[in-house]
Each structure stands twice: as C-alpha cells, then as structure tokens.
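re: ur question from earlier - yeah i can do the single chain one, its not a big deal. heres the input i used so u can compare w yours
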Amino acid sequence: MKSKKVAVIGGGAAGFFFAINLAEKCPGAQISIIEKSPRFLSKVKVSGGGRCNVTNATFVNSKMADQYPRGKNLLKKILEQFNAQSTVDWFEQRGVTLKTEPDNRMFPSTDSSETIILCFQENVRRLGILLRPNQEVHKIEPGPTFNLHVADGQEEYDAVFLASGGKTKLEAYDWIQELGIAVEPPIPSLFTFNLPKHPFKGLEGVALPATVKLEKSKLLETGPLLFTHWGLSGPVILRLSAWGAKEMADRNYELTAFFNFVPDMPQQKVRDTLTERRTSARLKTIAANREFQLPSRFWEKMTDLAEIPAGMKWMDVSNQKINKLTELLTNFPMEVKGKTTFKEEFVTCGGISLQEINPQTMECNKIPNLYVGGEVLDVDGITGGFNFQSAWSTAWVAANALSNKWNS
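and the output i got, formated as tokens:
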C-alpha cells in the first residue's frame, strides 16, 4: 500500500496535536502542516501571558463540557475519548509536567509556553512531519483524493485535517463554504469592556472580586474584576463576554452593566455593616478605615463618589450617605460602549456548524476523509484553559479516527 499523504491546514495547537498523534499511529503517513503565516503556534506562545494555559483541572467530563457556551454537546462526546486527564498524561509522557493553580488553570511547571512549543517541535522533527509556512490554501477540491490549491500550485492528498483557526470575518470562510459546508457567522468572544465615561480613572491595575450583571439579561457572573486604562477586564468580564457573545453583538456592545463589589454579602447586610461602623469606629475617619477588605484606592474612590469627605469620621456619616455608599458598592451601573480584543489570544464564537461533523470521529459528514478540529469549529469555551482543551480533544479524536480507518 502506497504511503498516505495528509494535509493539515493550520499550524496552531489543533494542527500540531493532530499531526503528531496521527504520525505516531500511522508511521508511514506523509504529513504536512500548511500555515498561511510565517509563524507556527503563535497563539500557544502568547497564551496565559506567555505561560500557556494548557488545560483546566476539571476532570469530570460533564463539568468540563459545561464551560463551553457553544459546543457543549460535542464536547460531551469527544471528552469520553480524550479529556483533561488525557491531556495531562499526554504531555507527561513526552517530558512535560503540568501544575495546577488555585483557580484550576493548568500550566507547564516551567511557567513558559516555550516548553509546550519545544515539545511539539521535537516531536514534529522526530516523526518527520513537514512544516510549510507562508502557504495559504485558497481552495479544496474533494474527490477520491483532495486537490489543494496553495501558493506553490496544486497538490494531491488522501486526507485533510482542517484547523485553520477562528476567523474574524465570514468572508474568510468562503473557500470552506464552497465545499457546501455550513458556517455560523463569526463574532468575538472573550473580550474586555470599554467604558467611555470611565468612573475609575486612576485605579488601573486594581483587582477585586465582583458580581456583574447585564441590563435586560439573565447573564450574571462572579469572579475577579480588573480595572484597566480603557475599562474593565479580568476573568469575570471574559466569562461574561463568552456567555454573552451573541447577545452583546446584537446590542452592538452598547449597554449598561451593574456591579456588586461585595458579592458574598446581601445588600441589607452591607448596609447594616456600614451603619454599625458609626458606633464601633465612631472616631476614625472613613477614608482610613475601609470595610469589606476592599483595596484602599478603590475604597477611597467609592467614598468619594458617595460624596463622603475623606476626613469625615464614621460617627458623622448620615443615613443618606450610608444608603448611597451601599448602593454604589452593591449595584454600581456602568455604561459599556465597545470592546477590546487581544489579537493573538482572540477567540471567536462561530465557525463550521457542528451539524456538519460526526462527533465520534470529527469527520465531515458530507466529505469523507475531511476532518475538522480546533477553533475553526463553532466551539468556544470560557477563559481558563478550556479552548486549548477543545483543540487537544478534537484533534486527538480526528487523528484516532483516521488512523483506525487506515489501520483496520
């Protein structure tokens, strides 16, 4: 039997993971990773602030699948074959140990994405996988074999793994739609909020827990909030943007969000606590005696917004001021107008419709031997390593299915 030729379109996490796993399972296959840009694994390099958030220590498959606003049902099926524990084991078997942080995010123990990149590079060299940068695929002609139109001309392959990443514009999927494959329009997910009337100027870099709720919406998230120069970021904002990607796009990213900065306490309890301070700290100044373990700069800003003078003593604070401070701490409205995305870590909601894919094999229902994985699918997870886990799982399942077909 002649050696099988496989084209992997996309040199990111899913593309490399598929190629390595297929090469190990089908030693005779000739595998090429075709990447339109000059760099491979660019998102792996910058992920997690350059540390690479490989996966999340959510080892119950159903709980893992719950972290995907789009693609939950697909993830339920593929995690039965390759899950978070599988990821930990896979990297460990290749000399990369992962560590778990308190929020369950998992990183290489070196705290460097270069560790993951070197692992992939070493295995690509070991397995003889061909890397081809600066080669954009313009067209795929399926048949008994695949005819790929690339910069260097036309090439023939026995199978194709499509992992060309999340696209920001629907036109970028034109060559995929020409195959008769349905695509959900792409829109941003995992973005930060812009605040044109920023009430917290000067607090850039301050972080604290908060509950955030969008107006006229059921969406609500609790977690760390970070003030930035342009507005708001942090895990709570990123999670909210993932779950609300379509809803916020429909509103053109213009809405009011409400913030509770004392999320673990009912509003009345907050009011009672502030009222009690008038007795227990009666001779102390408000500004110098913050409550609820809030950051001092943030507390000063909130008391200022409540029109409480910095030098005022607790005993002199009126009920009206207590009520205003309580409202600001537990139900602070902010006008969101626009978003900011991180180009390298950009995640899309949208992509190839999951109705087009066999969830047991990641093979395209309409085109035999065309497999799909990673962000090009209409699958996206919240922040915390879930998007990489989707890449590893879909790629492994596709490689396993194709190798089983060829080795049977």
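The radius of gyration is 25 Å. not sure if urs matches, ping me
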